[in-house]
Fold Copper chaperone NosL.
Amino acid sequence: MSALHRVLLVLCSLALVAVIFLPIWRIELDAAQYPEGLELQIYSHKLAGQVEIINGLNHYIGMKTLHADDFVEFTVLPYIIGFFALAFLAVGLANKPKWVYVLFGAFLLFGIVAMVDFYIWEYDYGHNLDPNAPIKVPGMAYQPPLIGYKQLLNFGAYSIPDIGGWIFIGCGILLAYCAVQEWRKAK
């Protein structure tokens, strides 16, 4: 493996350690009655932002309240990210191009599984509503967007990666670059 690729993998390893402590995803809610907006930040191990205000508002339309203890993901995600941080380090130090391909496949698979899990969580959160909710809009679901913008009654919801998510994506791009370059060099 080239020295540049090895250094990039080691740097990605350090960056992934930081991801454990940084917000990975954010959902921003905008409405006239909240001109400053509301924000939900999702870390690898907790929820942050105006969680209690969002829970209070969601009660009216029958959405479940958000509690970190309800998500098994918050128990395992820091360890999975830590595993990938160690894997990036090990592959960078091992100097074996074959392991770059294996790491890339595993990292890509994890990213896909994580996004599918997040979509399923959002779907459940936005569709399984309490039938005794004070406000009922027939046929209305309140699933936040996976990525991007969606209008939910009088709220605009934006769902985007936060700093940890962008670091995670950046590490994936650098890993893909290293894998492609090592593959081209081997041909």
The longest strand covers residues 34-42.
